[in-house]
Amino acid sequence: MAVMSTLSPLDGRYASYVSPLVDHLSEDALNRARVTVEVEWLIYLVDTGILPGEFTPEERDEMRSIEVDPKELGEIEAETRHDVKAVEYYLRKRVKYPDIVHILCTSEDINNLAYALTIKDAVEKVWLPAARRLVNNISALAREQRDQPMLSRTHGQTATPTTLGKEMSVFAWRLSRQLQRIRDTEYLGKINGATGTYGAHVTALPETDWPSHSRSFVESLGLSWNPLTTQIESHDWQAELYSDIARFNRILHNFATDVWTYISLGYFHQNLAAQGSTGSSTMPHKVNPIRFENAEANLEISSALLDTLGSTLVTSRLQRDLTDSSTQRNIGVAFGHSLLAIDNVTRGLAGLDVDANALARDLDASWEVLGEPIQQAMRVASIKGATGMDNPYERLKDLTRGQQVTEEIMRDFIKSLGIPADVEARLLELTPATYTGLASQLVTYLGE
């Protein structure tokens, strides 16, 4: 049972759905990453000979295995009133050469690297796999339904038919492009002192090539080196990442609203076992599309937070202010709402069955959509020399606009045109269900 006394629903009602992010984007996870960076910096300074000392393989392994006790760390921070300083004091009790801990760096050197590591892990180990599974499921649905004819609706009105699979493939394609951008994210880091000048470094050890060592250390953590910063790493890469995830969110929001609409049209039936047994508290016949509605809300919240993160983090007064400190503590919340939405859409999609009969009924009741190909065929025939093809658009408008057009009416109109015999035969074979162009073939652009 979820804890209901928490302020955030992500920590209460929805905790089980977003719990994988806790290992990467919680305060405890951030402190573990800070410990990792401090330990690696200590090892680097000694192993490269920048500072005197020596570690055995066992000592390195022991330091890299240091666990963080949140209670003890919290007690230290209560005294220091500084989170990174608390990590420093915590480590001093546990490592060889305690005087080297947190030397030749500033707290933001540790923080920016810790955040980069935790965000990278959250994206690559939690968010991306979940998003990729969903997109793969949408792609699978697209391939499965590539030949299923469906009436289109542009501006909410009946329009040129398509296939259900082709429409699903549009979303799979759009979402896949964003996943590629997110996969290609460059996670930047720096370690260059209080204002990015290596001032203290050069004063203490002037013979050392500090930019070279800074780059080497940052890249040893699996990050890209930022050579030019103030006291803080500029966070531009974070803003770029959050923009891409927000865009993924908004495309997924579009998908959720479209699927919701297809459910309301009867094109999809919701599987009761997958969606839950209760739809309405008072109307027992209902099965509400709650997965997609829940996803919409969470995607909106996530995108709003990501927009705020992206716009706030790229700005810092002069060489440093602390707005980024509070802002970055909401990264996990933004990711959490996105992950929750992805989970809802994934489960909602798994509980849908296509109603081919409903799709067929809508198509069969919409013969007016053949006004487009007939008009175009008339225009081409006229260009090729056929007579009697004048004013095709106006003639089809008079026939179809605001009127119920049956199969019989449409076929009689085609026969009355005097259009070349081969064109007439082709038009007479056409039905709303077969007028889907290359829709089925276009799904192949998703790949296999």
TrEMBL record:
- GO:BP terms for this protein? 'de novo' AMP biosynthetic process; 'de novo' IMP biosynthetic process
According to its UniProt record, which reaction does this protein catalyse? N(6)-(1,2-dicarboxyethyl)-AMP = fumarate + AMP; (2S)-2-[5-amino-1-(5-phospho-beta-D-ribosyl)imidazole-4-carboxamido]succinate = 5-amino-1-(5-phospho-beta-D-ribosyl)imidazole-4-carboxamide + fumarate
Its pathway?
A: Purine metabolism; IMP biosynthesis via de novo pathway; 5-amino-1-(5-phospho-D-ribosyl)imidazole-4-carboxamide from 5-amino-1-(5-phospho-D-ribosyl)imidazole-4-carboxylate: step 2/2; Purine metabolism; AMP biosynthesis via de novo pathway; AMP from IMP: step 2/2
Q: Which UniProt keywords apply?
A: Lyase, Purine biosynthesis
What is this enzyme's EC? Answer: 4.3.2.2
Molecular function terms from GO: (S)-2-(5-amino-1-(5-phospho-D-ribosyl)imidazole-4-carboxamido) succinate lyase (fumarate-forming) activity; N6-(1,2-dicarboxyethyl)AMP AMP-lyase (fumarate-forming) activity
InterPro entries, from UniProt? Fumarase/histidase_N (IPR024083), Fumarate_lyase_CS (IPR020557), Fumarate_lyase_fam (IPR000362), Fumarate_lyase_N (IPR022761), L-Aspartase-like (IPR008948), Pur_lyase (IPR004769), PurB_bact (IPR047136), PurB_C (IPR013539)
Domain Fumarate lyase N-terminal, chain residue ranges per copy: 72-295
Using the record's annotation, list all stretches that form the Adenylosuccinate lyase PurB C-terminal domain: 316-436
Q: What does this protein do?
A: Catalyzes two reactions in de novo purine nucleotide biosynthesis. Catalyzes the breakdown of 5-aminoimidazole- (N-succinylocarboxamide) ribotide (SAICAR or 2-[5-amino-1-(5-phospho-beta-D-ribosyl)imidazole-4-carboxamido]succinate) to 5-aminoimidazole-4-carboxamide ribotide (AICAR or 5-amino-1-(5-phospho-beta-D-ribosyl)imidazole-4-carboxamide) and fumarate, and of adenylosuccinate (ADS or N(6)-(1,2-dicarboxyethyl)-AMP) to adenosine monophosphate (AMP) and fumarate.
UniProt family annotation: Belongs to the lyase 1 family. Adenylosuccinate lyase subfamily.
**Protein's name according to its UniProt entry:** Adenylosuccinate lyase
Q: In which organism is this protein found?
A: Flaviflexus ciconiae
